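Standup notes
- HV: blocked on the assembly model, inputs below
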Amino acid sequence: DIVLTQSPATLSLSPGDRATLSCRASQSVSTYLAWYQKKPGQAPRLLIYEASERATGIPDRFSGSGSGTDFTLTISILEPEDFATYYCQQRRNWFPTFGGGTKVE
Amino acid sequence: QVQLQESGPGLVKPAETLSLTCNVSGFSMTSSSYYWGWIRQPPGKGLEWIATFSYGGKTYYNPSLKSRVTIAADTARNQFFLSLRSVAAADTAIYYCAREGALAVADSIEYYYGMDVWGQGTTVIVS
């Protein structure tokens, strides 16, 4: 299976800061990578698909980049509602896997 | 508006079978570009994919759970199901159903749209 490693595990920032989250795959996943935002008590919310495409209704302060094994989620200006845990997920094959998550606090 | 809603018992005894249902509304499960799956999150841990069902009848399972899991669907009623046998405390989690979009050619994914619609989740405790 393809292992996704997210770093850092925790990111301590303030509203207005820029957040840069990393996701590294153990083997190439091409651009078959998605990012999700997860808050306690809520379902995951799709932010980015195909590595860099914003999902419907997602603000343009969220952006994704990368291909192959290295991916980045950037939040250009943190809003109070952006403090959450973020997961990357790959779909290179029919066994999708998630990263361990980055908590933005 | 597409909505998914999980239902099932909140408490299951060890060694028994967990059965969950996901009701899909606002969208037909018969679309060829979408897949239907189950994902769980144990307390304090990350997300784990369990299984996926496609309209063509193909099923895909997490290898670590494959011997205990069955995913099935009743497309006429726009529902799909999860059965997890021989549960143990490690199966305690919030279980989510989700819609997943992908363009697949000859069983190979060519474009991935992500898991774009999720249910609210249902908590299952094995005790």
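- HV (later): unblocked. Chain B touches chain A through 26 residues (CB under 8 Å). Residues 71 and 119 of chain B are 16 Å apart (CA to CA).
- Next: hand off to the docking folks.
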